[in-house]
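F.,

This is the one I mentioned.
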């Protein structure tokens, strides 16, 4: 079996803090699909993100990523921090 190394790629991202909705909306642009508030502890909102695979939910603390081809998607913080280094 062959092994492969992921190519170094620089991406743009913003973390959804629960208090920066305006910044996240600007970052996502047309990929912003709204927010969800029902049944959220403490009234925390989740963001709906339009991706190539359909809508995905970004919870508070998740990162919103813009890939090198311009599509957006959410990423859990532990996976984001294990995958990306700040440049």
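My design for it:
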């Amino acid at each position: 079996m062959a092994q492969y190394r992921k190519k170094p790629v620089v991406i743009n991202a913003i973390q959804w803090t629960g208090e920066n909705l305006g910044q996240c909306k600007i970052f996502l642009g047309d990929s912003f699909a709204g927010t969800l508030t029902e049944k959220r502890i403490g009234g925390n909102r989740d963001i709906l993100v339009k991706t190539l695979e359909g809508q995905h939910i970004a919870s508070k603390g998740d990162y919103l990523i813009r890939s090198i081809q311009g599509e957006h998607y959410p990423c859990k913080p532990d996976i984001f921090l294990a995958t990306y280094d700040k440049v």
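The beta strands are 12-15, 32-36, 46-51, 54-58, 63-66, 72-75.

Talk soon.
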